[in-house]
Amino acid sequence: MIETGTPAPDARVAVAPREWVSLRDLFDGRPAVLLFFPLAFSSTCTAEMGAIAEDWAAWQAVDAAVIGLSIDSPYVNAKFAESTGAPFPIVSDFNREATRAYDVLRPDLGGLKDVSERVVYVIDRDGRVAWSWQGEHPGVMPPLAAVLEVVDGIR
Q1: What is the mean pLDDT of residues 20-42?
Q2: What interhelical angle do 144-154 and 43-54 show, nearest 10?
Q3: CATH number reported for the structural domain that contains residue 93 in this entry
Q4: Cβ atoms of 41 and 78 closer than 8 Å
């Protein structure tokens, strides 16, 4: 994982099929919360994105640019965002540029190769890693209340 205080890397991600953007462009000058997750539609990933969607007013209150990232295709992520009610982008890191740049590549998950670990990074307005968290294993939910507190403290 990338250490606190380190400049946040940039990478190209797909926000929709055939629509690639710079990850940094999604920050839009706000503190960013990068939610790397292994696979769309798995139980913990669905619970995580759904919990943020259900509490969206709290994330808006801290003016966070929330971004979900998985190695799933942009087609799958579009359906996943729709199914979870996510009002924030869930982008495709199909080419694993962001996953590698942020050092969160999991070589094997039950026979599935090169997926993302479940990791949260908070990036401050200056583009530096302000906080990070990684679950003991992919089935552990991130401490979303703690993430909100961190973002509130740096905004």
Answers
A1: 96
A2: 50
A3: 3.40.30.10
A4: no
